[in-house]
Amino acid sequence: MADNKKKTFRAIIIGGGPVGMYLAHALQETGIDYVLCEKRDAIPPATAFGLFLWPHGLRLLHQVGLIDQTEAISSLLTKITHVGPTGEVVREYSDFGFIQLAHGYPVRMFDRASLSRMLYDTLREPGAHIRTSKQLVDVERRAGGVTAVFADGTREEGSIVIGADGIWSPVRNLMRRDAPEGLFEENPYVAGYRAVFGRAPLPRQGIYSSSSASSASLLEPERQVEFHRDGAMLQLFASRREVHFISYRKLAEPRRERKGFSTDVDATDEAIAPWLDTRIAEDVTFRDLWRTRAAAGGANLDEGMVRMWNWGRMVLVGDAAHKLLPNQGMGANGGFEGAASLVNQLTALLRHEPDPDAAGLRQAFAAYQAERQGVMAAYQRMARDELDGWTRGGGEGGPPLDALRAADGLISPMVACSVRLDAVPFPDERAGFSPWVYKVPAEAARAAGGGAKL
């Protein structure tokens, strides 16, 4: 007797970070079944650092109905101040305010745990779709699908596996195992910098701004402050309750080693020690901020691009496919866009092939990579060039701030070309004086005069 049971396309997401959780929302809103498997025992991570969403990242959250929740748990960034090695303010800009005028959405800073919790709580029936304590050990191929196998002996069956599982992606390792030798590197990323991330309560002494960082505080809400030295930089981001910081140190030689984020850091760390006596507020030094830290951790800043983002029925998104330096805050935004692009390709495929074969999936995955790879390569290069320039803090001329600011002018046109979900109505999309370029098919047809012409 023939099996008349209708097959349902099901995506298995590996990784419950912000990109994986946004991907769950995108699949939910487009009607694609999914299960998300996270190796930790809870979705909100106890992380030591913040996360930044630019207008294109906020736009994607708005499209899936989360803009009010997003604004409730984040802080605006509107100003940036650069401080030289002797404590003098050398430049102040309000470029973040310009970004909001251009695109209708601002730049916002998040606590990573709060963002993850919000993304979890706003899913429909998260308990039916989210699995924790699931360490992936294998992906088995079967007729018309895959089976994800976990260390606890449990299994999940689906149509595809999406690796949203970070720079040391287990999914990517399994792709490497199955693919021809040489297609996937064991470690595709290299680190040229080390950084320590952290957060601390906002100091209550002297919280006002001045032209001299040595006499008064620069830690007012909505302000990003950057201190520059040769081979090093310190970034501070203040909300109304706390200060997030990232301290960078250029490595003497690039490193290619599998060494992840570690909370085992102290004041002797090479990325922290040079900044301890730096005055950041009236009668407050960075040493005081460090002593009151709520959390901190360090890592070598791996960066790079994976050559192939898919193999078989497995595909990568976010840091598993492309890793950017954090100084411009584009990593999560690029991951969100990549997730939306992948969902768009799957939606178009499933519209015609509800149970696609491997060839159809391969074509959809390739189209997704083709749409995103060049954009992410550009963002990656911009972040690296900027950090190299910013860490020219002393010496003749100091950091080339005006040149770097001019180069940042490339970001706004790239933001305007960002991806959104094709299959999700978006009547409340915000816009500024730089209109969004990306159009879904129906909108493109209307803009062309009412439909496709043969």
From TrEMBL:
It comes from the Eukaryota. Residues 11-376 form the FAD-binding domain. Pathway: Secondary metabolite biosynthesis. Its cofactor is FAD. InterPro entries: FAD-bd, FAD/NAD-bd_sf, FAD_mOase_fung. Keywords: FAD, Flavoprotein, Oxidoreductase. Belongs to the paxM FAD-dependent monooxygenase family. This is FAD-binding domain-containing protein.
